[in-house]
Amino acid sequence: MELQASNRDLYLAMYHKMVLIRTFEDKLYFLFLNTIMPGTMHQYNGQEAVAVGVCAALNTNDFITSTHRGHGHTLAKGADVNGAMAEMFAKETGLCRGMGGSMHIADFRVGMLGANGIVGGGLPIATGAALASQMRGTGQVAVGFMGDAAANEGSFHESLNMAAVWKLPVVFVIENNLYGYSVKSRDAFPTDDIAIRASAYGLPGEIVDGQDVLAVYKHSVKAVARARRGEGPSVLECKTYRYKGHARFDPAAYRPKEEEEAWKKRDPIKLWALALTQAGIASEEELKSIHTSVRKEVDAAVEFANQSTSPAPDSSLSLIYAETSREG
Amino acid sequence: MYQSIAVALNRTLADEMRRDSNVFVLGEDISTLGGAYQVTKGLLDEFGPQRVRDTPCSEIAIVGAGIGAALAGMRPVVELQFADFVFCAMDQVVNQAAKLHMMFGGQGSVPIVIRAPQGATGRAAQHSQSVEAYFMHTPGLKVVLPSDAYDARGLFAAAIRDDNPVLFLEHKLLYGSSSAGGKAKSVTGLLSTLRPAPEEDYTIPLGVAEVRREGRDVTVVATQYMLHLALQAAEQFAKEGVSVEVIDPRTVAPLDMATITKSVIKTGRLVAVSEDVLTCGVASEIVARVVETCYDALKTAPQRVGTLDTPIPFAPESEKFVLPSEEKISAAVRRTLAVPVAS
């Protein structure tokens, strides 16, 4: 792996984001087991290199749409940690004022157009955001994140086809974590790889090691640059693994323990730490201090959420419709 | 002045596209062909293929791309070739467009208009439905049902300028234009109740009903094509000395219940008419709300008139049998008159 010393700040920022996501998720897990956290959640542990590698290739005003497993994308895109945590706590200070929760978290200030509780539901929306960018000539790129299962939804086909026909500036990122809830991807797909579907739309489709944040980043930079040049969409399939069950209630008994252990040996954060220290980019102490500061950041976010008030019970009623109308 | 809803919509689109560069149209066969009912005819010449976009046959992506573009600041007007096709895009309409503003806590809005022709015109089960009740049942959407060119123009301008997702459903029989295939059947006998649109642009606020005919004895609430049948029926009743008030809600979400209840309190009798099927339909909802809020004012049981609970059959006599008609509306009015009108 080629690491460049001049990219040190970027590399450490990527490390920080990966640790932030992991720490955030571990904290949520703890809070949930202690029945402090309402609702359910789909956790991102193990997949951090994908969200971070892709989002590191984007500008703040670029767009992403996310999935039901959206905490990682939200934090990777730069959402406010306090606001994200408060949303998990269903508080008024949450990014979505406590109206969305884990599965519908969004932060429009950083181009994060929403997690989505419907598998494949965000793909046409990413396509549309890219259409707006193309029509206005803003140069913004949209990324549509999806799990492997989404590639079997009709919205996948319709979005890729439309985006390809119109050469829209969008990158479709498939996070193939090998399971759609309990069903092995290989039992839901006739092929080992999903990215090969890109060729049916005349698009480049790359298969990427989703545990290697630098590999994800490099492929993303290429795909994003292609989109920004007006050459159209790309498909990236990142092979990865979710450490937890499908959702908080799921012990994932359908997965062999040996498989889990094998994947955890290639933990994306450990791999990146090793790469950074071996290349002399950062010392172990420096990385340790990132963990320490992230723990403080997440603890502060929990404190912020705890001290925030819940929304008034009737607050959704004033949010059914947007109030404004562009008269005149 | 023009009588045709298709022309009214076409002029409105052109006006709105001139006043706001974020407005654009996308749908199947809308550019060169001008749309199945010619609503987008000629727009390609003035605005070009970027803003007048033929799409693949992909309702999920058409509506979804509209939503994404709307979140990013555009104001897309989506055409679905027939209202029946909206069911292909149901997730995008119901789970996405309708909910995003609320579930993101007010971040972003979805200013999209989804236009679609609806109503029974001899095209059988999958090209004949009136779909408003599905969307009236979905909080977050606005549902507009223009009944003539005058309303169509003002309501459409308001819909495009609204920051919310709007289903704008047009009745095929009221377009007053031929379809591109030349097969549209236009209603010709109703011209006295179809109001033309003037040249200048104006808006009609969404959520405000109109009393189309004042009366004392019976309130008839009717939408779209049914409105015109109700007005004809009212004319006949006038000859018998029965005074029928006819109200056009114009939008069923939001539904202007204040205008309807005010009328029912005056007349004490209600007939609700809609071309969608009866069960959980528009007429059912109107009757339910009136019974809840004005029970004491009712002199007789409210009546519903709608399409029978069946897919629309092809055979013309069978189609006629299941659809509402002037005769069925009149019969319903007579049922409410079981207690004689005080003279």
The rounded Rg of chain A comes to 19 Å
* Beta-strand content of chain B: 15-25%
CATH fold-type name of the largest domain in chain B: Rossmann fold
Residue ranges of chain A: pLDDT <50 for 5 or more in a row?
Answer: none
**What is the 3D shape of chain A?**
globular
User: What's the architecture of chain A in CATH terms?
Assistant: 3-Layer(aba) Sandwich
> What is the class of chain A in the CATH system?
Alpha Beta
Structural category of chain A is: alpha/beta
Radius of gyration of chain B equals: 20 Å
**Termini of chain A, distance in Å?**
58 Å
Give a topology summary.
The complex is a heterodimer of chains A (about 325) and B (about 350).
Chain A: H1 8-33, H2 48-55, E1 63-65, H3 71-76, H4 81-88, H5 123-136, E2 142-147, H6 154-165, E3 170-176, E4 179-180, E5 183-184, H7 185-188, E6 205-209, H8 213-228, E7 234-239, H9 257-265, H10 268-278, H11 284-307
Parallel strand pairs in A: 1-2, 2-3, 3-7, 6-7
Antiparallel strand pairs in A: 4-5
Helix pairs in contact in A: 1-2, 1-10, 1-11, 2-8, 4-11, 5-6
Chain B: H1 5-19, E1 23-27, H2 43-51, E2 52-54, H3 59-71, E3 75-79, H4 90-97, H5 100-103, E4 113-118, H6 132-136, E5 142-144, H7 149-161, E6 166-171, E7 210-213, E8 218-222, H8 224-239, E9 244-248, E10 251-253, H9 257-267, E11 270-277, H10 282-294, E12 303-307, H11 316-322, H12 326-336
Parallel strand pairs in B: 1-2, 1-3, 3-4, 4-6, 5-6, 8-9, 8-11, 11-12
Antiparallel strand pairs in B: 5-10, 7-9
